[in-house]
Design a protein that fits this description.
About 45% of the residues lie in helices and about 15% in strands. It is of the alpha+beta class and about 350 residues long.
């Protein structure tokens, strides 16, 4: 096993990583349980010459944020990394990758009006997407009623614009919503059209759902070999569970923190993101559910979430960690005890 680094800061980390992967006799790619990391795994795996080494793929760790660039150096002459997959992953991570715009457009994908769903059905997208949280989320019948006056069977651009406007108004008019939601919903509107799931935003949403609930299927989809219908079924179930959990959650507001308690097995990371973007009046959101915790913050907040999660988990004999903006933990104490520990770690 070898590692690579540049202590003096003079070397190019992209070249270092590519060289280490190219020269290794055995490569094990491990990704965090989210759509961005799953896409990164797929981009790197695609660039690695299969004849050069074995590769073990799994989902449970940390992924590089520069895999598209690394893959460009790692691949054989003339190899073009999968910009569509990389962009879908970046969109799942709530970023707008300007450096990927040109290769995505070269692949024939352009922005169009409408919703960033993984199917052609806007009702399906409204009801199951985790790119928005509105009164119709998780409820296909309510979503169908919202779009009842729109001919959704064969939509032109005008119909897509109307659907997008109705989605934005549903978020803006949500009595439980916050002003942050009006900005957050933009991720769901005017998507890049194309790719294996209709839009890049929808593709990223599917990857994120699979990484959290069906990682084996997610790896297959990221490698271009997964069952599309099974992936969509998992995406719908993930969306229903997440929105149901948001609606049933018990919340507590503290100075700089919005604590959310859920019952049962819920996708805590997704719930935390939805609450942060569409429900929370505070910049940091902590979700706890039956011995699992997830936390996220807004870009403006200064808290190192991963450090706080690690400290809180240690206090209650659990394990945790993350990045500066998000974190995860597992523990065996009462959920309320973890909330107290996290507050003390802030």
């Amino acid at each position: 096993m070898s590692t690579t680094g540049s202590p003096d800061g003079t070397a190019d980390p992209t070249s270092d990583v590519a060289a280490a992967l190219r020269e290794a006799a055995f490569v094990r790619l491990v990704a965090a349980a989210d759509g961005d990391a799953l896409a990164a795994l797929g981009v790197l795996a695609d660039s690695r010459p299969a004849a050069a080494a074995d590769a073990t793929l799994g989902v449970d760790g940390v992924a590089s944020s520069a895999t598209h660039e690394v893959a460009g150096e790692l691949g054989p002459p003339g190899f073009d990394p999968d910009a569509v997959l990389a962009t879908a992953g970046a969109l799942a991570a709530e970023t707008v990758p300007a450096d990927l715009a040109a290769p995505v457009e070269e692949a024939g994908l352009e922005h169009r009006p409408g919703l960033a769903g993984p199917t052609d059905d806007p009702v399906d997208a409204l009801a199951h997407s985790t790119l928005l949280c509105a009164p119709v989320s998780g409820d296909p019948e309510a979503a169908a009623d919202l779009l009842g006056d729109v001919e959704t069977a064969d939509m032109d651009d005008d119909a897509r614009r109307r659907v997008a406007s109705l989605a934005a108004l549903a978020v803006a008019g949500d009595a439980d919503g916050t002003s942050r939601g009006a900005e957050a919903v933009e991720r769901f509107l005017r998507p890049y059209a194309g790719g294996p799931f209709g839009t890049l935003g929808g593709y990223g949403d599917v990857l994120d759902a699979l990484a959290r609930t069906r990682p084996g299927l997610g790896v297959a989809v990221a490698l271009g070999a997964g069952d599309g219908e099974a992936a969509l079924s998992a995406w719908r179930e993930h969306g229903r569970r997440a929105h149901r959990a948001v609606g049933a959650a018990r919340t507590g507001r503290y100075d700089g923190l919005f604590a959310v308690r859920c019952d049962g097995d819920v996708p805590a990371g997704t719930v935390a993101r939805l609450v942060r973007d569409f429900r929370s009046p505070e910049p940091v959101v902590l979700v706890v559910a039956d011995g699992e915790a997830a936390a996220v913050r807004t870009p403006e907040a200064s808290l190192d979430v991963g450090t706080a999660m690690a400290a809180a988990a240690e206090t209650v004999a659990g394990t945790g960690g993350g990045t500066t903006t998000r974190g995860r933990a597992v523990f065996e104490a009462e959920d309320s005890a973890f909330v107290v520990a996290f507050r003390e770690a802030q």
